[in-house]
Design brief:
With 218 residues, this protein is an alpha/beta fold. Helix content is 28%, strand content 26%. The protein has one domain: Rossmann fold (3-Layer(aba) Sandwich). The strands form two sheets. Strands 3-2-1-4-5-9-8 form a seven-stranded mixed sheet. It has a two-stranded antiparallel sheet with strand order 6-7.
């Protein structure tokens, strides 16, 4: 499975490759993530899945009194992140197995990682996200934004694929999730990918079990 490969080697390889262009990577991600800031308030518990070394998580929570968790398959990224951002609670892991209590998270952010998840694990990713989030929580997804689902060979491994898809649809299939915002360019200064095949977008969903179903009287 792709999960096993990323936990064993490719998670570290991916992280270390990006270290060569860290300033560019961080600047781009800061711009893409800036729209999340308004959803994060003091006292919230935040989880970023695909957190790398925690840079984005640190930027989002640096002036907020929050508890911030981060999960990434790269041991190198988590090790570096614990040194750089000691206030963050970082751990090695994947989206299909979240080592967190039920209904403990106020906002989950998928940090450009769902395109590499095994297709057989997607339903489990949704279930785990639903399990750990509180009612009235937010789910943010930053990933490729394409009109048609696409599959491409992962250039670093012959038998591995990346999958471009509107991953918000996985959650919106359930009535407790509603779309509240989507952006491709959160500010005038933000990067914008004009090529539709490489365009990145962010979707924010709201979870509300209480009002998900219209009650019908007997």
């Amino acid at each position: 499975m792709q999960k096993d490969l990323f936990l064993k080697t490719e998670g570290n390889n991916y992280y270390n490759r990006n270290q060569q262009n860290l300033d560019v990577v961080n600047k781009t991600s800061d711009e893409l993530y800036s729209g999340y800031k308004k959803y994060i308030n003091d006292g919230m518990v935040i989880l970023e899945i695909g957190c790398s070394d925690g840079h984005n998580l640190s930027q989002l929570t640096k002036d907020r009194k929050c508890v911030a968790y981060g999960i990434d398959p790269s041991q190198d990224a988590i090790k570096d992140g614990k040194h750089r951002f000691p206030d963050l609670k970082l751990m090695v892991g994947t989206a299909d197995e979240l080592n967190l209590p039920d209904e403990s998270i106020d906002i989950v952010i998928f940090g450009f990682c769902l395109y590499l998840v095994d297709r057989k694990l997607l339903a489990k990713v949704v279930a785990e996200t639903d399990r750990v989030t509180k009612d009235n929580a937010y789910v943010g997804i930053t990933d490729f934004d394409v009109k048609i689902p696409r599959k491409r060979r992962y250039k670093h491994y012959e038998d591995i694929y990346s999958y471009k898809y509107d991953y918000s649809k996985l959650f919106l299939a359930y009535p407790q999730y509603s779309l509240i915002e989507k952006w491709n360019k959160p500010s005038k200064e933000s990067v914008f990918f004009s090529n539709i095949e490489e365009r990145i977008g962010t979707t924010v969903l709201y979870k509300n079990h209480k009002d998900a179903y219209l009650f019908e009287a007997d």
